[in-house]
Amino acid sequence: MSDLELMVLTILVGILTPFAIGLLIGIDRKITARMQNRVGPPVLQPYYDLIKLFGKERRAMNSSQTVFAIACMFLQLAAFVLLVTGGDLLVVFFVSSTGSFSLALGAFSAHSPFSYFGAQRELLQILAYEPIVFMVIVAIGFRERTFLAGSVAHDLLFVLPLALIALLPVLVIKMEKSPYDIATAHTELISGPYVEYSGTYLAITKIAHWFDLAILFGIMTLFFWDQNIWISIGIKLLIILAFFFTAIVIDNTTARLTRNRMVKFTLAFGLALTAGNMLILFLADQGVFRWP
Known about the structure:
The protein is mainly alpha-helical. Helices cover about 70% and strands about 0% of the residues. α3 runs parallel beside α8 (about 200-220), α5 (about 115-145) packs parallel to α10 (about 260-285) and α7 (about 165-175) packs across α9 (about 230-255).
């Protein structure tokens, strides 16, 4: 594949991925409804919801809430563009994290008890998954000797398998699924940090959430690489779908955890797996044993 074709493919992936995330959310709702013996909404419902929200009147409780919602979307968009164009993974991490904090700050600025509780729970979730994502990026950089996403040119699937598995609870949290649906539980009427957003500004936060998920899926795809671009794309898609369907099964077979248990379990599980994988890799580099 020539450089021009690769550039066109990168642009297409960058444009189509957010739409694909909306489609995945629609498929998730449909599958979840079927597993609960319901018909469920159409697969394209997330797009219908978004169009409907953009058609509503623009209202916000204060200007700060508006600024934080827009900042959240643009920061997640910037992090996604950096990732797709092969930028520094550490920069991607910090820009995306700032976007996540912007969502919580927007909820804090609403001066509403429901929004305040949602923001607190959102911060707890960030505390639970951000250290894991950071450690996974460090593990990739340690193995590849670079943090540039575009320079990851080795198959990491069998070298860092534990680090990849550590991203599963992170995905469940970011998809707002049980047992980690702390901020936006299915059984509660309030919707966490989104509760005081409506209309266009709620649509903006939803788009930011799509980009946030796209970044996590993008990091997962770095674990496989092949010289044949089509094989590479195919396996990357399989990795995404495997994690996506596993998250749906976990959502429908587990009960909601308490906030403290969510933080303790997620951090212990994710950090232990990632640190253990890095230790194995280090010992293998020192010649103690062969890995894999």
